[in-house]
Amino acid sequence: MSSNGLNSSMPDEKGYFGEYGGSFIPPQLQVIMDEITDSYLKIKEDSNFLEELQDLYTHYVGRPSPIFFAKNLSKKYGANIYFKREDLNHTGAHKINHCLGEALLAKKMGKKKLIAETGAGQHGVALATAAALVGLECDIYMGEVDIAKEYPNVVRMHILGAKVIPATHGRKTLKEAVDAAFEGYLKDPVTQFYAIGSVVGPHPFPMMVRDFQSIVGKEARIQFQEMTGKLPDNIVACVGGGSNAMGIFSAFLNDDVNLYGVEPAGRNLEVMGEHAATMTKGKVGVMHGFKSYMLADEQGEPEEVYSVASGLDYPSVGPQHSYLKDIKRVNYVTINDEEAMETFFGLSKIEGIIPAIESAHAVAYAIKLAKEKPNSTILVNLSGRGDKDIDFAVANYGKRFGVEI
Ligand SMILES: *Cc1c(COP(=O)(O)O)cnc(C)c1O
Q: Which residues carry this modification: N6-(pyridoxal phosphate)lysine (predicted)?
């Protein structure tokens, strides 16, 4: 990681990617954000920090994650499809990459506690893991409804030593958890560190989380060339907030490689509230402290969003994605619930890999692309494994896709 470090020309020093990003927060918090930015800019040049992080990636996460040539899938659909196996990481997804980075930074800044909100509990578990490892306290805010629905992740967080704080107002899901976490943060932004879970939020988080995830793209670029002698023709990743996609895209932005970000079309792309396709259907505005495409009502308040993949149902998107959409460097496309679930079961049967439903969106699009571009190479970022999704998948879709127990 040290050779090309964690560097990139974007964003500018105020955190803008073109017109997107920035920092729209109360002045008392801006002071804290500026401190985090300063510490991060220093630490990302510090070879001790970079070595410590790389050592954890190697020995704790199990990096580099392999690239796997999906021979059976390729044969069936006519292109050469490869997976970057982030599903094989410790804790089962790419999120551990940025959680470790944030936890180490917080520790070096002398913070005592990591806090975050979580929806399905994936970010909460990854952060609780990182907190346990580096020796920080951890408070995870979670809606009461989600606590009941995602119980195994709640148990994991408790075992890992985190405190799970229920959000009990409103609909008692992710939005309320964000409110509660923000309130908790404002009570003491000095000793607490709010570890944002994707390439979203005010500057420096979109930059910092992307930099921590860029390990995925850096490894993939080398591995793919070693395997095939070339760069891939196409790269596909799912986009919730956009961290796994930015992680892999970041190493290929200056190459002649087609990039595809897959948004969730949910149950119905034409009905607000039934999807979370932010860039496909949204407009530009400010939400959660940054400017980007978003799904908002007339008053600019976040709309209800939905996807069968709870990791993808976010009403905004990382600002760099909005920029990459406008300059047409990345194609943003959609996959609906039905297509994702068909791929969830299909991939499991044909390759013996149960993908996270989020990742199944990316694979489903790769299959479409394979039919359009036969004989091309397609690298998919397989962002996570599907262990967390098996009960839900069988209960709700098993019958349709031939799995009855
Ligand atoms: C959280 C999650 C996502 C979505 O987050 P991004 O920031 O868009 O990457 C995708 N896949 C998995 C497995 C996840 O857990």
A: 95
Best substitution site from 65, 95, 250, 335 to test ligand 1's pocket, by max atoms within 8 Å of Cβ?
A: 95
| CB crowding 199-220: b at 16 or more within 10 Å, else e | bbbbbbbbbbbbbbbbbbbbbb
Which two structure tokens, joined as six digits, stand for 211?
């930099």
Q: What is the pTM of this model?
A: 0.96
Q: What is the pLDDT of residue 171?
A: 86
Structural domains in the chain, sorted by start: 17-58+95-206 (3.40.50.1100), 62-92+214-397 (3.40.50.1100)
Strand 163-167 to 258-266 pairing: unpaired
- Residue pLDDT, tens place only, 28-72: 899 999 999 999 999 999 999 999 999 999 999 999 999 999 999
Sequence letter at residue 186: L
Pocket test for ligand 1, best of 358, 382, 389 (most atoms within 8 A of CB): 358
304 secondary structure, DSSP code = P
